[in-house]
Amino acid sequence: MHVASLSLHDFRSYEEVVVPLVPGPCAFVGRNGQGKTNLVEAVDYLSRLSSHRVATDAPLVRAGATRAVIQADVVREGRSALLEIEIHPGSTNKARVNRSPLPRARELLGLVRTVVFSPEDLALVKGDPGDRRRFLDDLLVLRAPRYAGVRSEYDRVLRQRNTLLKTARAARRGAADGALATLDVWDSHLARAGAEIVHGRLQLVEALSPYVGKAYELIARGARHDDATTAYRTALPVETATSPGREALEAALLEALAQRRSDELDRGVTLVGPHRDDLVLSLGPLPAKGYASHGESWSYALALRLASYDLLRAEGDDPILVLDDVFAELDAIRRDQLAERVADAEQVLVTAAVAGDVPVGLAGARFTVADGSVTRE
Fold this sequence. Notes:
- By secondary structure, the chain is of the alpha/beta class.
- It is 41% helix and 23% strand.
- It is globular.
């Protein structure tokens, strides 16, 4: 899988730009603030329908414009398709394939797959559980796009249930029977969607873990494949090591909700479910967060992304690998190790402020990015 051409209209800093790309390594080189990352961010947006840099769509639209458009000619198994997304902040985005509208934008998911490593990925190791949950859920959707709908449903139910909890809390001294009866209904909806997400995450962590160890051994000097380990942490009353099924997880979530009902009414918020779980990253016997050095944290974050790439590659087409301004953070040895590891990828998109930061092993098409223009050298 690779992008043969990328076209942007009013996306980020670009009023209009068309960039012909090639398989193999493509490096975008230019000073900071010239728009290098905007290009690879656009490709990644087609894959995930969200940005790896910001939480909302508004910053993606050029100042003064009302919408942004991303078009990409994507080649997969020798067949080409024109993918397009119109970004409308505060409204519904629109998607097309070969100029034919799709009923919902999320039907674009799965048509192009990317794995992005960027400086923000340090948060996977050092950040809050929410960063690691997003990592799992994004990868889950890349493996099986149907999980985008499951996640959307869970978020909707969670919002409704939290609103009802706040209402029930306010009414506890009065007649709260109606609110509590309705809460039972939302418990069932939450347990059903939540069990799907937890089940998917558990399977994902099991499949991903061996790749994480191998990637960390490659990147971190002197490391062994069993130094970096991952585990899924949930408050549900189940033994995750036994790979519980969806029905068992749904029953466990209903049980946990019943046990925490009083606490939830006191606080007006849902206290159990996949939105409270975490991916535990360990180096040897210690958790990586709080114990790993800066270099070890970088190596672990990179290992997670490389493991994601290896997993997706093993299950289907090569995803597009994006290395966004990462080589400046790595020493010469790690740069060369990384370049050697990914050199055979069908397409690698690299950004760098200095041409010398791009390893020789990723010598391919070079583009200069400056003053809103993209020029191939």
